[in-house]
Amino acid sequence: MLRPRVLAALAALTIALLPGAAHADDVRASQDAVLRTLDLTRAWRVTKGAGVTVAVLDSGVDPRHRDLAGSVITGRDFTAGANPKGVPPTRLHGTYMASLIAGHGHGPGREDGVIGVAPEAKVLSVRVILEDEEPGFRSFNSDVRYETVVAKGIRYAVDRGADVINLSISKDLPTEEERDAIRYAISKGVVLVAAAGNDGAGKRDAPYSYPAAIPGVISVAAVTPALRRATFSNRNSSVMVAAPGVDILGAGPGDEYWVGRGTSQATALVSGVAALIKARHPRMSPALVAQALTSSASTRNRYNTGTGFGVVNAHRALTTAADLARHRATASGPGVQDPARKVGAAERDTEPVAVVRRDQRAIVVYGAVGVAGLIGAGTGLVVLVLLVRRARRDDDDTLAPPAPWRTGPQT
């Protein structure tokens, strides 16, 4: 069953700023360290994510928050029926993640409030989990009706044009439906980014978290401001890259601002970088987007299970993506068949293929003659070997010394 541990960690480690009254300058200033780490100032000279849709599969997004207004498309709620009637969704975690991905700020020049990694991208909100303080949380996590909500949410997001899917959620085991949905998303060119999990404290090898550990999904770990693995961040071989995940400020419902820690926040930041890549290269495959992200990261010890290939750098990721985009997906050059052309057209440009007629009767006759020849050759070889051995025996008899005389006792 779903077990959104990231939400529990968020509730325990998040501190609310003054709701709506926090000075916007303080909000933006508190983001400076993260913006510098991701090298967003240079990345935004290339793109800010215009034309891209990032699906946030979470607890829902507040579309009226001043830092997200006009950028949120409210999609389907797959948790319907879990809460008692008349209970509105809290939408804290989802709004928080959406702001880190596509927050555009507000005020003159939009210089106030939260700025996301891809501030010109759109957010598709798909509700697939409940906050732990919602009354239906326990029943949602134990009711078999909701086992496939994440898989359904992924397919829903793909069919509605999502370019990137953010999965700041975690559970212990995957379902076959989720694997199939992820395969479907990748086949449609959609990039999936998921949280590595927050169970790493005091563990040498933390358990795998899903859907992050499913092949094809970009698994994200969290690092401290010093760019070291956060103690809570899971450490296992599914981790691909890392991003800041400690003391990260974001937006909350009702124009609030929140600060917290977790691989959820790191995942949202990486989803934003993936959105920048897709904005610049819309047809780039998920595998190449992942390659651009891993190539942009830097780590002192190369790959490690704590931070993967290292902390993502948005500018370097875009530069690498530009290089990867120059490569064709199909072979080219003389003699190579273009898969987009019809076979008939290709035949007119090449020499005709000679068709050889096979005479089965002739094949049988010639085969029999060949076998007979092999038998004759083998028989001749045996006879030759026997003659050679006989000749050697005759020579031995001719050259042997005469037998000695024998005499009786002399008297």
Key features?
single chain; 411 residues; alpha/beta; seven-stranded parallel sheet; three-stranded antiparallel sheet; 13 helices; disordered C terminus
List the helices and strands and how they pair.
Elements (H helix, E strand, L loop, with lengths): L4 H9 L1 E2 L7 H7 L1 H6 L2 H4 L9 E6 L13 E6 L14 H11 L1 E3 L5 E4 L6 E6 L9 H6 L6 H11 L4 E4 L8 H12 L3 E5 L22 E6 L15 E6 L3 E5 L3 E5 L2 H18 L5 H11 L17 H12 L17 H6 L11 H40 L12
Parallel strand pairs: 2-6, 2-7, 3-6, 7-8, 8-9, 9-10
Antiparallel strand pairs: 1-12, 4-5, 11-12
Question: How would you describe the overall organization of this protein?
Answer:
With 411 residues, the chain is of the alpha/beta class. The chain contains 13 helices and 12 strands. Strands 3-6-2-7-8-9-10 form a 7-stranded parallel sheet, sandwiched between helices. It has a 3-stranded antiparallel sheet with strand order 1-12-11, with helices on one face. The longest helix is centred in the last third of the chain and has 40 residues. The N and C termini lie far apart (119 Å).
